[in-house]
Amino acid sequence: MSAINQSGWRPEMTPERRSNEATFTGNRALMLEEALIFEIGSLDTTGVDFAEAPKAASRLGGLERHKDIGLPGLSEPEAVRHYTRLSRQNYAIDLGLFPLGSCTMKHNPRLNERMARLPGFADVHPLQPVDTVQGAFEVIHQLAHWLVTLTGMHSVAMSPKAGAHGELCGVLAIRAALDAKGQQSRKVLLVPESAHGTNPATAAFAGFSVEDIPATEAGRVDLEALKARLGPDVAGVMITNPNTCGLFEPDMKAISDAVHAAGGYVYCDGANFNAIVGRVRPGDLGIDAMHINLHKTFSTPHGGGGPGSGPVVLSAALAPYAPLPFVEEQDGKFILIEEETAGEHHADSFGRMVSFHGQMGMFTRALTYILSHGADGLRQVAEDSVLNANYVLRSLEDVLDAPFANSGPCMHEAIFSDKGLPEGFSTLDIAKGLIDEGFHPMTVYFPLVVHGAMLVEPTETESKAALDQFIGACRSVAERAKAGDAALKSAPHFAPRRRLDETQAARKPVLVWKEPAQAEAAE
Amino acid sequence: MSRYFTEDHEWIDLDGEIATVGITDYAQSQLGDIVFVEVPEDGKQVAKGDDAAVVESVKAASDVYAPVSGTVIEGNPALEGEPALVNEDPEGDGWFFKMTLSDTSELDSLMDEAAYADFVSKL
């Protein structure tokens, strides 16, 4: 009796024949090729027929357009198919594990989406009379309450729209507090090497000069170097905790105490709050301002998928300077504190960062996430995200160099370096090899303190089975590199497009589509 | 003409009153393919250690620091259109800017070619 044919392929069909044969269309069964939108359809085609526009005298003073603006011509089904086909060539959190370090790409519970689409939240206008949007204000107010509770801080500014915007809010509050004390001469913000890349950019944008504080061998802030730099010109420190090496800063309280004693303020980048939510309250560590990426810790679609939201929790020292507007509860009603009413409620505000009240959709999703998890659930989010990252770290440290493997357990992300890869193989080859294995690559070449860094953040979302499959793929790719497999240098081989020439793309970007004949003439 | 090196992997040549500054071959090899260079404007005053130029590769964006204090007299105009020059000839045609020095004694704290080679070998 012959064995069961588990592959489903006819025995005479060799794998070479299956994978190398070109098709007439370029399609491969359900993997569909797709041309650019300008290269398909016909200019005679439209999705909607409009009546001829009435003749009218131009009032544009000769500025009216005469030439065709070059819109593609597609019928509705052609347009729908075009974008659906493109979407199938994309990778998404709903397709698989998204190990991008520093991004917290976790599952977005569908309950969040359902709540955010309720008409009372989704269909309101920011200029509606406040009496008609009391429910939306209650969501903002309740979420603010839980963010303050979870962080152990004094108050929260809800309006910043994402992480870096939140950083700017916190740093402007520090500037306002120093100015109020007449300390305009404090112009230096210290930023450790283990901080997020946006931190020095934010400090510079807000008018501070930025100075680095080195990291120790163990990947943490050098406390002595920091203390040595403190002085009357230092406005404060911007620190990321847990830091971008995926490590908790155990000296955080000592850092805060030293900065406060020297008259400065402590900004904490809270992008990695996911690792400590429910376990550590930043307020207990002496932090004066910290943004919370609702779109990371509290699971709202991000990474090209949706808007961010970066509320900033503030200490009692910085709270008076928080930006407008504010939602407050007064006699059982929610009111909005804006410029007209700030005088009696919030006189020292440094101003306003956004037109309206913040990202309503993100607020609704984040509050839904918090309430549906509860205190024990949120604590477990932190615990499981740390457990998963440590599982990845310990499962790969024998095939990939883990520079901080001896610094104790990592937090929510595991970091590896390119040390030990053979001559000619790089972090980029590992990342591209993972694409062939069906995974989005991890964050690469960041943080800069680790050579050829590979930063993996699995999040608490992933099951052990999913992690084991990812670990298996990483091991296989790393072992191929170590064996000198030249094919890895040109990976990906199975993606819709092969390895891109990033150098040429950056040096000679082609940003506008031209008719092929025109493009050739321009060469 | 003598050439000096910094721990930040810049080189500086002094020819009479005018010094030429660029990044070393080691620096370009670590950065990888360079895709953009921003050179300082003529007349910019720089103190030793100030940000003077920006170099961006496919891997990272980095500041290039002024190795000594002085005044920029010319940025390399060729780098705007052809940043690859920094990869091809970092210590020649891929120079970043020329400057006059306000204090030539600052050169004494920099490394000579042998000392820099020794410094790089220990990285």
Automatic annotation (TrEMBL), chain A:
GO biological process, one term: glycine decarboxylation via glycine cleavage system
Pfam families: Aminotran_5, GcvP2_C
GO molecular function: glycine binding; glycine dehydrogenase (decarboxylating) activity; pyridoxal phosphate binding
EC number(s) reported in the record: 1.4.4.2
Residue intervals of the Aminotransferase class V domain: 186-303
Residues in Glycine dehydrogenase C-terminal domain copies: 383-482
GO cellular component: cytosol; glycine cleavage complex
Keywords, ordered alphabetically: Oxidoreductase, Pyridoxal phosphate
Highest rank taxon of the organism: Bacteria
Keyword Kinase recorded: no
Catalytic activity, as annotated: N(6)-[(R)-lipoyl]-L-lysyl-[glycine-cleavage complex H protein] + glycine + H(+) = N(6)-[(R)-S(8)-aminomethyldihydrolipoyl]-L-lysyl-[glycine-cleavage complex H protein] + CO2
Region entry Disordered, spans: 1-21
Function, in words: The glycine cleavage system catalyzes the degradation of glycine. The P protein binds the alpha-amino group of glycine through its pyridoxal phosphate cofactor; CO(2) is released and the remaining methylamine moiety is then transferred to the lipoamide cofactor of the H protein.
NCBIfam families named in the record: PRK04366.1
Name of this protein: glycine dehydrogenase (aminomethyl-transferring)
Annotated organism of origin: Sphingomonas tagetis
Gene from which the chain derives: gcvPB
UniProtKB/TrEMBL annotation, chain B:
GO process terms (BP): glycine decarboxylation via glycine cleavage system; protein lipoylation
Modified residues (N6-lipoyllysine): K59
Keywords annotated in UniProt: Lipoyl
This protein's record includes keyword Transport: no
Co-factor requirement: (R)-lipoate
InterPro entries: 2-oxoA_DH_lipoyl-BS, Biotin_lipoyl, GCV_H, GCV_H/Fam206, GCV_H_sub, Single_hybrid_motif
Coiled-coil regions, chain positions: none
Domain (Lipoyl-binding) ranges: 18-100
PROSITE patterns assigned to the protein according to its UniProt record, in alphabetical order: BIOTINYL_LIPOYL, LIPOYL
Record flagged with keyword RNA-binding: no
Entry's cofactor comment: Binds 1 lipoyl cofactor covalently.
GO annotations of cellular component type: cytosol; glycine cleavage complex
Record Pfam families: GCV_H
Subunit annotation: The glycine cleavage system is composed of four proteins: P, T, L and H.
Protein task: The glycine cleavage system catalyzes the degradation of glycine. The H protein shuttles the methylamine group of glycine from the P protein to the T protein.
Family: Belongs to the GcvH family.
NCBIfam families: gcvH, PRK01202.1
Protein name per UniProt: Glycine cleavage system H protein
Source species of the chain: Sphingomonas tagetis
